[in-house]
Structures are given as structure tokens and as C-alpha cells.
Amino acid sequence: MKLKYLILFFIMFAAGATQAQVRFEAKVSREKLGINERLRVDFEMNQDGDNFDPPSFDGFTVVGGPNQKVSRSYYNGKSEYSKTYSFYLEPKSRGRVTIGQAEIIIDEKLYKTSPIVVDVGAAVDQPTDGDNTDLIAEGNLHLVAEVSKANPYLNEAITVVYKLYVSPEVSVSNWREMDSPKYSDFWSQNIDIKQLRVENGQYRGEPYRFVVLRKTILYPQKTGELNIEPLTLSIAVDVPSQRRDIFGSRIFKTVNKTVAANNKTINVKPLPDGKPAGFTGAVGDFSFSVTTNKKQLNAGESLEAKVEIRGNGNLQLFDIPELSVPSSLEIYDPERRENVSTNLNGMQGSISQNYTIVPTQKGKYPIPALSFSFFDPETQTYKTRSSKEILINVDSGPLAGNEPSGTFNSNKQAVANNLNQFKYIKLNTNLRPIEGGDFLGSAAFWGGLLLPLLAIPMFIFFGKKRDKRAGDVQGQRLRKADKLARKYLSEAKRNLGDQKEFYLALERSMHNYLKAKLGIQTSEMSKDRIQTILNEKGVDETTIADFLTVLKSCELARYTPTSSVAMQQDYDKAASVISTLDKQL
């Protein structure tokens, strides 16, 4: 019987001892910090005490505290008590600094915390204020930019993927972009992400959740070291605080945190020497073909010839070889067609120029073979693709030369005579003399006689001008590009309301205008290069700034929605700046 009471007494004593176990400990917001940062120290106990005595904080300056916080909670019928003294400290020097022991008396018994060693390092760029919730948010939230290739060739596609890593200790309720990268030295295009998807992964060996916020394809337009600007976000982070609700659950505090992706630097290599003739800056892997929808037709009929480039690479950043035909075939300005999509592998699809050709004389006419050269970054070599010669057979129509006199056609048929076929001609006329004098010797007579003689020098003059114009090959190319620029500008006007097509056409018109006036290729169309050339040509700064503003609007419209009013304003500005540039150049 005594043994049973002893066991019961022992159990009650153990339960009371366990319930009465005192906890008094020190916690720091971080164990490593910069000399220009602040540190928060919490001394926490689970029972109320007296005569709290903090350490001397040698090596630190106390800039805040002590702040006292008391919380009580009830969970499953049990009460929990917490009391915390908080201090904010500023380090005085670099090195390893020890925070000494704090003391308190609880139930007439002295309790001490364990010493804590803190490493104070060099000053940091963005010091924190030591607030615990800010520190938690900072340590559990990371925006990372992942670049697919750090050493690309000029005009080779690279991918930048922005990922937001979030620790399980916090949660993100909202976010917005504060500053978007400009990509001034790149041709860029964002890849649409229809729906954000949360995935599980690791960040520096720790389990994290992450979401891909943006994917961007970049084509570097300059060689050397290029900087990829960071993406900056403002994020609302739900961080657990030290307080609890009446059910014992932690109360979360929402902290607005600004995070930026790390700066990335890539080294762009120039294309190797040995560029083939006719190389216009194509980088990737392509196929090349020249096709016609007809090879046999009559004079006066039309056929369509298509010069097409298909594959994966910088499809919108180089020129398509121009088709040339014999003089007996009339050829019209080509229509450019693009069927290009962009994914993480870069631009894929096809671009083509479609020519309308009309033969004027009977005969057989060859469309000469064309060649297209590109640089393949996978094999690091230049490659050339060639088309085959196409023979066009024009069956009927006027001959290109004199027909042989001995030509005989055994299929001739006799023509039936019709005696009534000329009955519509009147044989009896009623003519009367003209009143007003004789025509011979009149002003009209001498005018009709001398006018052809006076027109001969004019024909000679305009003939020389025409021959000079025909012999100016460079001028013909510039005039053709100028017409193409006006054509694309009119195409942009037709696409007002369709954001994607409008800004693509507007950007092409601006580039083709520069090609027409300055003779520079598409591969040289970086903003810095354009600004340098226009400065050398004596164009004023305001006009250059307006021109670059239109180009920036075209780039920004790839990933930012815009309104019809803004599109109309960009179109008017483009027309105005081209007119102003034309006068100054």
C-alpha cells in the first residue's frame, strides 16, 4: 500500500517539476553582420522573474531597448507564458565579439543565458535596421536571374529566367515590378507565361518553393562585356511574429520587401574571320530555298517566286538575299512574310520574300541560283546554302528575237471569206470644207512642226539622267530600301489596334529607313551605334532622342500592354521624326 502511494507521489512530483521547468535563453537575429548593420538580441523566458540584469554589451553600442514584450496563450487547456527583453545593438569594430550572459531571478533562483559569439565583417551595400521581421523576410526570400550562356557569340540567342525562391517559413501574398531591365545592348523579347506555377526545389542546399516570373530571349548586338540589368520587385511577405492568437497560433505580420535579381555580366564573342560573301549577320541553323508556283505560262500571266529561310536563329535580324531575273521578266517589289515564334530555344519558324513576276516575251528564261550564308554557333563554322536554277518556259507571246523566215506550220487552216464583213464602213461621205482659213501656214501648223524639234534636247537630257540613275547601283538599293521603309510604315498604320503586329512593322520601318539613308545593316542596329552614326552626320540631339524613343517604345511594347491612343502617338512620332531626319540628312 505504501509503495502505491510512493509511486503516485513520484508521478505528481515529476509532472510538477516538468511543468515548472524554467527556460531562459538569448537569441540573436543573425550571427554574422556588417559593421554598418544593426543586431537584435532577445532574452526570452517562460516564467516571470525579477532583477533582470543584461550583459554589458562590450564591443557594441546600444541604440534601442530594452523593449519588453509579454504574451500569454492557452492551448489544449494549458497556458503558455512568454516574456522577452529586446535590445538593438550597433558594432563598434570588426572581428569576433561575444555577447555576455544575462541574469534573472525566478522563484528566488538565479538563471543565466549562454554567451553568444557574433562575427562582425566589412560594411555591406544595403544595411538592415535589425528588425526581426525584416531580417526573416530578407533571409527567406531570393530573386535569382539564371542566364543560359555566359559566353555567347554576337547575335546568338541566350535565355534569362527570373525565379523567385520562397522559404517554407514565410509566404508571399502579392508582388509587383518596380523596375524592369532595359536590355539596351540586346534585341529582346519576353516569352508569355500564361499561368504562374509553384514548384519545389532547393536554394543553396535548403528546401524552397519557387516560381518562374519571367522568361526573356536576348540577342546581343555588341561584343565584349555586357551587363544584364537586374529585375526589381516589391513583394508583400507574410512573416511569423512573436505574438500568438488566443488559440496559440503565431500571428503573421505583412512586410513589404524590395528584392532585386543579381547583376549578370556576359562576355560576347565576335564572329570569327572568314565571313562568306553576302553574309548579313545570320546566326543559327537554317535551311534555304527558292521556289515558284509555276514553271510554264504565257506572256502577260504572272507567277510567284518565294525566297524562304527556315530554321532556328535570329530570323528577324538579317537580310534575305534578293532575287534577280532576266530583263524580259518584269519583277515587282517583294512582300515580306514572317511566321516566327519565340521560346526558350530562341526564334523559330520561317521568313520569306514573295516576288510577283510577269513575263513579257515568249522564250525560256532562267532564274539564277541564290546563296545564303550563316554562322552556326554549335559547330562554330560558317555554312552556305544554295538554291538550284529554275527555268521558266513562256509558251506564247511576242518573240524575244526575230523569228526565222523559213518557219513553216503544217497545221495552218484556210480562212473563210465573208463578203459582209466590211459592211459597217460607209462608202458615201458628206464632207464640207473647214471654215476659217487654211491650216497651212497657221500657228497650229508651225507649232506642230517645231514642237518635236524642241523636244529632242529634252529627250536627250532626260535620257542621260535615266542612264545615270540606272547606273547608280547603290542609289537604286537606297531608293528601294526607302520605298520599303514607307511600305512598312503604311503597314504599321494598317495594324493600328493590333499591338504586336503594329510595333513589329513600326520597328522594321525605322530600321529600313536607316538602311536607306545611312547604308547600315540590320546587324548593326544597336541604339549606341545608331546614336553614334547620327551624331557623326550632324543630326541634332532632340531628333536623335525622338528616334531612339520610338525604338524603345517598340521594344517595351513586346512585354508591356499599351493603348490605341499610345500606338497612334508612336505612329505620329515615327512619321514626324523620319520627316525631320530626312531634312537634316
Automatic annotation (TrEMBL):
<keyword id="KW-0472">Membrane</keyword>
<keyword id="KW-0732">Signal</keyword>
<dbReference type="InterPro" id="IPR025738">
    <property type="entry name" value="BatD"/>
</dbReference>
<feature type="transmembrane region" description="Helical">
    <location>
        <begin position="439"/>
        <end position="462"/>
    </location>
</feature>
<keyword id="KW-0812">Transmembrane</keyword>
<feature type="signal peptide">
    <location>
        <begin position="1"/>
        <end position="20"/>
    </location>
</feature>
<dbReference type="Pfam" id="PF13584">
    <property type="entry name" value="BatD"/>
</dbReference>
<keyword id="KW-1133">Transmembrane helix</keyword>
<protein>
    <submittedName>
        <fullName>BatD family protein</fullName>
    </submittedName>
</protein>
